[in-house]
Design a protein that fits this description.
Blueprint (H helix, E strand, L loop, with lengths): L1 H8 L7 E4 L2 E4 H23 L7 H23 L5 H4 L1 H23 L6 H32 L6 H25 L2
Antiparallel strand pairs: 1-2
């Protein structure tokens, strides 16, 4: 989830541009926003895991899914020439998403459990794993995008909208499903 959001946040931000499916995308924001989001999620992850803050899981999961819907809508608005908050203030959006996702990660860790004698190391390694996973996802998405951009395909305008609409639709299903879990 987070990797898609970082990809969406990075669409029209930064330099070091790489062409992806006929558009220009930056590698620098992917890396910096990914790192910022992972660092910020670490704050709420630690706070929730150590019991300093408690937020019920189902509402957090619904908000995380809704944040994916938000990013998908932001991408569509950007394609329509109406850049939104993610284009104007990607760091603000990354900050909020990072804090939100930390609560989600804490819920996942609570289900798995942490070793009592190595909680700090386990939290650090979990965050490192999340960061590496995001970077691998983003690298794979960029590689696929570069390959697709090099194929001699007849491009249609609707193709630019297909992925954000598909992801936004799936995420909205998750929102409804998660809201139903605590209703």
């Amino acid at each position: 989830m987070t990797a898609f959001q970082i990809s969406g946040l990075s669409l029209n931000f930064g330099s070091s541009r790489v062409p992806v499916i006929g558009r220009s995308m930056s590698m620098t924001p992917f890396l910096s926003l990914s790192s910022a989001t992972a660092s910020l999620s670490g704050i709420t992850l630690v706070a929730a895991t150590l019991g300093w803050v408690h937020v019920p899981g189902p509402p957090v999961e619904a908000m995380i899914a809704l944040s994916i819907v938000f990013v998908a809508a932001e991408i569509v608005h950007g394609l329509q020439g109406r850049p939104g908050l993610t284009a104007r203030a990607p760091w603000v959006v990354a900050f909020v998403f990072g804090l939100l996702h930390g609560f989600g990660f804490a819920g996942a860790l609570a289900e798995v459990g942490l070793p009592e004698k190595a909680i700090p190391v386990a939290l650090l390694m979990f965050n490192v794993g999340v960061e590496l996973g995001q970077l691998i996802f983003v690298a794979a998405a960029l590689a696929i995008g570069i390959l697709l951009a090099r194929l001699p395909l007849l491009r249609r305008r609707w193709m630019d909208y297909a992925v954000p609409y598909a992801i936004g639709s799936i995420a909205m299903f998750w929102v409804i499903e998660r809201v139903g879990a605590f209703a």
